[in-house]
Amino acid sequence: MEIIWYHPTFDEQAWINGLQRRLPQANVRRWQPGDNAPADYALVRSPPPEMLQGRRDLQAVFAIGAGVDDILLQLQRYPDMLAPGVPLFRLEDTGMSLQMQEYAVHTVLRWFRRFDDYQLQQQQALWQHLPGYQRDSFTIGILGAGVLGASVAASLRPWGFPLRCWSRSAKAIAGVASFHGAEQLHDFLADSRVLINLLPATPETAGIINRDLLQKLPDGAFVLNLARGAHLVEEDLLAALDEGKIKAAALDVFQREPLTEDHPFWSHPRVAITPHNAAVTLPEEAMDYIAGAIRQLVAGGEPKGRVDLTRGY
């Protein structure tokens, strides 16, 4: 079994050694330009098109990450990059769900307990008690009801907040009110005091968090973007913050990364920023999944995480 690996920043030797331990029957090598030798499986992040082009022998491609937008963008530019019928798999839950849960719970509780307001008061040396929010009206709305959306909803359920989710097609999550399709988006937004974005990155979802959507939220709502920068129209969010329509935002992803030094998000008192690290790929967990998935494929099975190329997730 031949496996080719490519990632622009990860520790090459750690991954090759780790995969070799898990799949001793395989020969794992880092792909280099000009390497056209046979390969049964490819493990990639932002692969150069020539890495995969013309490979009719590939049994599957694994994206080293939860998102596959980098590969889908390449496929738009180079439709022949993947041979017809070659399945693409993403890391569905390899420690990322827990990280997303931590981020979401921390941020929601910070807003609910008004710790953001107290932090601003501290900067003014102001000692003042603030009235609390009512839990039963502090509704959390989650855009996206996939693996990560369902996981974040489950982590928030014990705190007693009303929970709702919205997705393109109908999904059912225990203890969560479900909305789907364009016709139900308005109703979903109307009572969502906190909007958490965990949508997949597709052409249909690009720019979905725009002025029109933000205006449908309750006055003084909060926005947490954990998915992709392309989902958010940054100028519209800034305007909504300055108008007071949106009270605060926490952002982990941006249209351009790294965020430019002169971007107004840096200095906005109601914006919290993290450098796209809400959920990072954990190598050991990721290699466990990939090795197990390859064993399933060899045995004729169908691993979880297969991407529908027409939908983009």
TrEMBL record:
Domain D-isomer specific 2-hydroxyacid dehydrogenase NAD-binding: from-to ranges: 107-278
Q: Which InterPro entries match?
A: D-isomer_DH_CS, D-isomer_DH_NAD-bd, NAD(P)-bd_dom_sf
**Do you know which SUPFAM superfamilies this protein is assigned to?**
NAD(P)-binding Rossmann-fold domains
- CDD domains named among the record's database cross-references: GDH_like_2
- Keywords attached to this entry: NAD, Oxidoreductase
- What is the protein's name according to its record? Glyoxylate/hydroxypyruvate reductase GhrA
Name of the encoding gene: ghrA
